[in-house]
Design goal:
The protein is an alpha/beta fold. The chain folds into 2 domains: 5-22 and 62-241 and 438-458, Rossmann fold (3-Layer(aba) Sandwich), CATH 3.40.50; 248-436, Glycogen Phosphorylase B (Rossmann fold), CATH 3.40.50.2000. 47% of the residues lie in helices and 13% in strands. It has helices spanning 5-8, 24-58, 66-69, 90-106, 119-128, 142-152, 166-175, 188-196, 198-206, 216-224, 248-258, 277-291, 307-316, 343-348, 368-372, 387-395, 405-416, 419-436, 439-458; strands at residues 82-87, 111-116, 133-136, 156-160, 179-184, 210-213, 232-233, 267-273, 296-301, 321-323, 334-336, 352-355, 376-379, 400-401. Strands 3-2-1-4-5-6-7 form a 7-stranded parallel sheet, sandwiched between helices. The longest helix is centred in the N-terminal third of the chain and has 35 residues, at 24-58.
């Protein structure tokens, strides 16, 4: 939702970051702090190693390049301004891509390097922006982070939403690299934990050069945690700057032909579903089939490695179920998504979408992609992680928020049998998202302003040479 200008200081010059001077005592204290942090991280890695092995072996999640995780990035030294942008996973990456496009127009001579935490986000970044360098974030160990910084030498580090790694912040501070947060957000759960551990998180927040938050509530939270009010702005929520599609009819025709289904097949979808939700959707789909209201349900589990589990669940209930990769001329009753990067197309080809993580207490998933695709969109009561987005859409009448599976069943029946009403709702959703957008352009302008000021101060991009005092992490 748009943020009042008077509350967010939208129009102010980029904060000038005086570069640091490092006395021998300060250097020694920072190195001691780094040693303590490394020790803590190593102990944590040992403790959680069984869980990591279970994810890699049991859930078949790829750990990605071990060399990159250890800081062995193959990258040349910079010859121009270099901006490092870090997005944890697919959701954060999708949110920041429009910002990067705007930034490249504002700073055409700059080089942008993307890092991600998850392998799926790295793969998506490489597919969507093949001309940009993309790497996996190193482990938060001093030697790993220093190795990356020594090669990367960024003018600026941009963190998407909130990704405060102690060693990363410490090493950036020691190297004189300013750190900016865009689309800043602190969840309700995170806010409660951070307030209790203010002594631990406060120094990390105070070390941030500038924070661009998504709304007034997060503005107050960042300031309360120690970010200076004059270094905090509210350009709005990046996730509203999503591509809006109006080719749903063409997408539906393509799937009708590909899947051997009659023209005009009524297809609905469960997107980003979690355990416990697929059963609810399958039970409802059985009723819709019997009533002749729908012919096909598409299930896209939030974690792709669960595709086999979901397929067995659907087949065990008597459905003609196939993987998306094998849905060819079989007129399936249930299609299970086993590929990455296809949600947009499937949303456009669906009359109605339920966005998962919201009927179970998970906190919800991003509903904007389904709304932007023109689908009638439902979500459950557990949408805390996307509360401001859901509230803005609900206020505009562009989303259906249900309390339980009974309300979902009633809502689906009400909407799925009225194609004209569904079409009108899809158009309303697209108009709403367009009206709430604009944060990407404003955020890119802030990044460009800060980057420009640092380049001018350093003279040689990536190599701080001036003296002064930066926000301290100690």
């Amino acid at each position: 939702m748009p943020v009042p200008r008077e509350a967010c200081h939208l129009l102010k010059p980029a904060p000038q970051l005086p570069l640091r001077t490092t006395s021998p005592l300060t250097w020694a204290l920072h190195r001691l702090l780094g040693f303590v942090l490394d020790l803590a991280v190593l102990i944590l890695l040992v403790v959680i190693s069984p869980w990591i092995l279970w994810l890699v072996i049991g859930r078949r999640r790829s750990p990605g390049s071990l060399r990159e995780r250890l800081g062995g990035w193959s990258i040349s030294l910079p010859v121009r301004e270099r901006i490092w942008v870090h997005a944890v996973s697919v959701g954060e990456l999708r949110a920041v891509l429009p910002v990067l496009d705007q930034l490249r127009e504002l700073r055409p001579g700059s080089e942008i390097v993307i890092s991600t935490t998850t392998v799926s986000a790295r793969d998506l970044a490489r597919r969507s922006r093949p001309d940009l360098l993309v790497r996996l974030l190193p482990l938060d160990l001093g030697p790993c982070v220093r190795q990356v910084l020594s090669r990367l030498r960024p003018t600026l580090l941009v963190l998407v939403e909130l990704e405060l790694w102690p060693n990363l912040l410490l090493e950036c501070h020691m190297a004189g690299v300013p750190v900016m947060v865009v689309n800043g957000r602190i969840s309700d759960k995170g806010w409660r934990q951070m307030k209790r551990l203010r002594w631990l998180f406060g120094p990390m927040f105070r070390s941030l050069t500038e924070v661009l938050v998504r709304d007034e509530e997060n503005f107050d939270r960042f300031v309360d945690m120690g970010v200076h009010r004059e270094r905090t702005t509210c350009p709005g929520n990046l996730k509203f700057d999503i591509e809006v599609s109006d080719d749903g009819g063409a997408a539906r025709e393509r799937l009708d032909r590909a899947w051997g289904q009659p023209p005009g097949t009524v297809r609905w979808m469960g997107g980003c579903t979690h355990p416990g939700e697929e059963e609810i959707l399958l039970d409802l789909h059985r009723q819709l089939l019997e009533e002749g209201l729908a012919r096909c349900l598409v299930l896209a589990p939030r974690h792709g490695e669960r595709a086999g589990e979901v397929l067995r669940l659907a087949s065990g209930r008597g459905f003609r179920a196939v993987y998306l990769a094998g849905a060819r001329d079989e007129s399936p009753e249930v299609v299970v998504v086993d590929q990455v990067g296809v949600l947009d197309e499937l949303y456009r080809a669906s009359t109605l979408v339920f966005v998962g993580g919201s009927l179970v207490p998970h906190g919800g998933q991003n509903v904007l992609e389904a709304v932007a695709a023109g689908a009638v969109t439902f979500c459950g009561p557990h949408h805390e992680n996307f509360r401001e987005v859901v509230e803005a859409l609900k206020e505009a009448g562009a989303i259906e928020v249900i309390e339980d599976s009974r309300q979902l069943a009633g809502g689906v029946r009400e909407w799925i049998g009225d194609p004209l009403r569904c079409s009108e709702r899809g158009e309303l959703g697209r108009r709403t998202i367009i009206a709430l957008g604009g944060a990407s352009e404003r955020s890119a302008e802030r990044i460009a302003a800060l980057s420009s000021s640092q380049r001018d101060a350093w003279g040689n991009p990536g190599s701080p040479v001036a003296s002064g005092t930066s926000p301290s992490i100690c």
